[in-house]
Amino acid sequence: MTDPNHGVLLDVAEGVATLTLNDAPRRNAMTPELGDALRTRVSELRGREDVRAVVLAGAGGTFSAGGDLQMLERLRKASFEEARVFMLDFYARYLSVLDLEVPTVAAVEGAAIGAGLCVALACDVCIVSEDAKLALNFVQLGLHPGMGATWLVPMRVGPQRASELLLTGRRFDGREAARLGLALEATPATETRARAQALARSIAANAPLATRGVKQRLGLDRAALQRALEEEARLQAESYGSADLGEGLAAAAARRPPAFHGR
Predict the structure, then answer these.
(1) 174 domain residue, yes or no
(2) Which family does the entry's similarity section mention (predicted)?
(3) Residue 33 is part of which domain span?
(4) Does the structure show a pLDDT above 80 at 113?
């Protein structure tokens, strides 16, 4: 099991807490253990008066490669109800970033794929590297989108563009993400973390009660997001029983195009 003290690193300076997903060998793939570590760090930060903004980043030049494929393989053997309940708790681990009372800034370097990109979108502001490798590629694996994708993406870019991104699963870079409104701005890769930190410090310098109030007023509709998560968990649980997901995972492992048959 990932040690919470190492799975997500925590540093606090100048009113800004930096949370760093720290599983670089696996490109910060989203496992239950890494999610537990993130939720633990979020709990540590709640109520801290010396923290006025949070930066979320990934170690090793990668934000997150998305859901762990071995985890997806294991879920194929679970019952529908086991998979549905597991997914709801899995979402909650990572979307615990929404429980932070202070503004959050995602610093997206390298890859942010699938559910990994969704976690970045759950932050109040997203700064991306120009050459970041981004995708909402759930359907390319034969899997229904999860981690709030069906709610977070339309909220950022509108329903039509969200449909295009989620139905094709195509890759795009940080420049396009900024043009579409998925990110505030795109920076050279060497400047992304520094820009996110500078933005967080400028937020932290302001009146804490006022900034927390603004965050609350501008915040996500948690009830609407929860309804989306409930539906996503149900539909992902259905996907785990499909032959298409097995084909998608096999194709991803073999680095070949999948051949889906709709069953």
Answers:
(1) yes
(2) Belongs to the enoyl-CoA hydratase/isomerase family.
(3) 4-190+203-209
(4) yes
Burial class (CB in 10 A: 0-12, 13-18, 19+), 1: exposed
What per-residue string of b and e applies to 79-106 under the rule 16 or more CB within 10 Å gives b? eeeebbebbbebbebbbbbbebbbbbbb
CA of 130: how far to CAs of 27, 157, 194, in Å? 19, 18, 14
Q: For 4-42, write each residue's pLDDT tens digit.
A: 446 999 999 999 999 999 999 999 999 999 999 999 999
Distance CA 205, CA 53 (A): 9
- List beta partners, residue 129: 187
136 in a structural domain: yes
DSSP sequence for 173-195: -HHHHHHHTSSSEEE-GGGHHHH
Q: How far apart are the C-alpha atoms of 252 and 68, rounded to whole Å? A: 12
Dihedral, CA atoms, 22, 44, 42, 6, nearest 10 degrees?
Answer: 10
**Residue 15 CB partners (closer than 8 Å, separation 6+):** 50, 51, 52, 53, 201, 204, 205
List the CATH number of the domain containing 170: 3.90.226.10
Give the total number of structural domains in the chain: 1
pTM of the model: 0.95
Residue 171 to residue 36: CA distance in whole angstroms: 28
| pLDDT at 122 exceeding the cut of 80 | yes
- Residue 214 covered by a domain: no
Rounded CA-CA distance 192/74 in Å is 35
Domain membership of residue 249 (yes or no) is no
Which tens digit of pLDDT belongs to each residue from 212-240?
A: 999 999 988 999 999 999 999 999 999 99
Tell me the torsion sign for CA atoms 23, 25, 26, 28: positive
Maximum alpha-carbon separation in the chain: 56
CA 38 from chain centre, in angstroms, equals 12
